[in-house]
Amino acid sequence: MRTLITAATILLSTSALAAESQIHRDLAYAEPADESRRLDVYAPADGKDHPVVIWLHGGGWRKGDKANVQRKPQAFVDKGFVFVSVNYRFVPQVTVKEMTGDIAKAIKWVHDNAKEYGGSPNKIFVAGHSAGAHLSALVCTDGSYLKTEGMALSAIKGCIPVDIAVYDIPRQLGGAGPLRASFFVSAFGEDETVHKQLSPITHIAKNKIIHPDSKASSFPISRSIACSQFPGPKLVQVSLTCPLCGQRLIAPPPVLKAITWVGNHFSNSGVEAL
User: How far apart are CA 150 and CA 236, in angstroms?
Assistant: First the structure.
């Protein structure tokens, strides 16, 4: 508990102690350029090759805005990150598949322009809350979206979905009451094949290594994700380091619960509350 309190205190430091940041707003990442497909960049004033966090807001796939970031940008800039908050189109204007395509285009833009804002194209993380968490998980597991933009999943070094209910849409619909089911159907439609395609869990496969990087520890983490839904050996724990507070996280199995646990740690460390 003391570690979490200390991390929160650091993240909530006064503006006098906060790192200076450069803010670039309303940058278009897709054509045609419109208000629905723009992003804001918050970058440290100095340095280069900073890791980059792409943030996807929530809103039930129907609403939300990149401006609703509270103190997240400053929290990440204080830790030496470039923070990018993304707008995307909503249903019913577009489908969730097209929405995820917007996210892939934003990732491509960030990759191609990261150096201009002091970031590294080789240190990109994708995070999001609620609907944004679903979109982040989907674009980071179904490689087809990034492939359309000429990129591979290996370009993403980490995915941080915070508070997500739809890793498995068919399962969620199967246990939902009428009102909740209606809410999901209005976003995802009624086609069960589409539900599976839009479920991040569908794209986690045995021997599919997700988000590899140069660290040896990335392989067992990826393997644990792959093995969580298939026969074979399973890791007892998932171990990684919080990029904000530096705390070593030992997350409990099964892996999908472990991902949620890590998301909760981010919230407790001040990220979602900021």
Answer: 36
Whether residues 219 and 194 share a domain: the answer is no
Residue 274 domain-assigned (yes or no): no
Q: Give the closest residue to 253 by CA, choosing from 226, 233, 232, 234.
A: 234
Tokens of 108: 């491509």
Identify whether residues 248 and 263 lie together within a single domain: yes
Q: What stretch of H or E contains 38?
A: strand 38-44
**Beta-bridge partners for 38:** 28
Model confidence pLDDT, tens digit, residues 225-235:
334 333 333 33
pTM of the full predicted structure? 0.74
Where in the sequence is the domain holding 188, given as residue range(s)?
Answer: 168-203
What pLDDT, in 10s, does the model give residues 175-206? 888 999 999 999 999 999 999 999 999 998 66
Q: Are the C-beta atoms of 126 and 156 separated by less than 8 Å? A: yes
Count of alpha carbons within 13 angstroms of residue 3, beta-carbon side: 9
Residues of the chain above pLDDT 90, percent: 58
Q: Are 69 and 77 in contact (CB under 8 A)?
A: no
Residues 107 and 198 in one domain: no
Do 87 and 190 share a domain, yes or no?
no
Cα-Cα-Cα-Cα dihedral sign, residues 53, 57, 58, 62: negative
Helix, strand, coil % in the chain, rounded to nearest 5 = 40, 20, 40
pLDDT score, position 165? 82
